[in-house]
Amino acid sequence: MKRFLIILILALVSSLACRSQLFYQCPNAPDVQVTVVSGGIMVDIDGGTSMMLFPQGFLSNYMYYAYGGVNALFTIDLTSMLLYVGGQTYQYTVVAAPPSSSAPGFNYPITPPATVPQQYYDPGPSEADRAYYRSEIRQLRYKIREAERSLRRYERDNERDPSISSMQLVQSQRRLIRTYYDRLEWLESQLY
Prior knowledge:
Layout: H1 2-18, E1 21-25, E2 32-37, E3 40-45, E4 49-59, E5 62-67, E6 70-75, E7 80-85, E8 88-96, H2 127-160, H3 164-190
Antiparallel strand pairs: 1-2, 1-8, 2-3, 3-4, 4-5, 5-6, 6-7, 7-8
């Protein structure tokens, strides 16, 4: 996992280095220019306000940058950005990468993102996820049956010979069963 994250970060850094400046536009919002700088990104809003944002990590398929109440989420391919500034959230899309006179190798045009059929954007769980949830549900139901069987045995032992330790054992087993049922409820909610 660590190796995968390192490779991903290196790929992102190299892709950002190839696109040192990007212009983003959003309807009814000021234009934004994003420049990659050492240690983060510089966001220039409509040529007036500039802010330095620092990397905060990854959220699902997004790169997250933030500093001082300003947040930016970029897609991995850098074609869109969500910018939260001044209590407002704006959704920007990349327009073009301007040619840079100081770095002649960085003036490549941005290729438009490939269109993916709508069927791949299904918000529900995939078949593999459903199979995993079903498997977990089966295992959890087995654990619940075994835990309830043990609880009945502990309760009988407590009735025959009451003690503090046997009562604690019964209470502990009840908490375990309740935890199992909470997990089962969550897993079943993920199926639909």
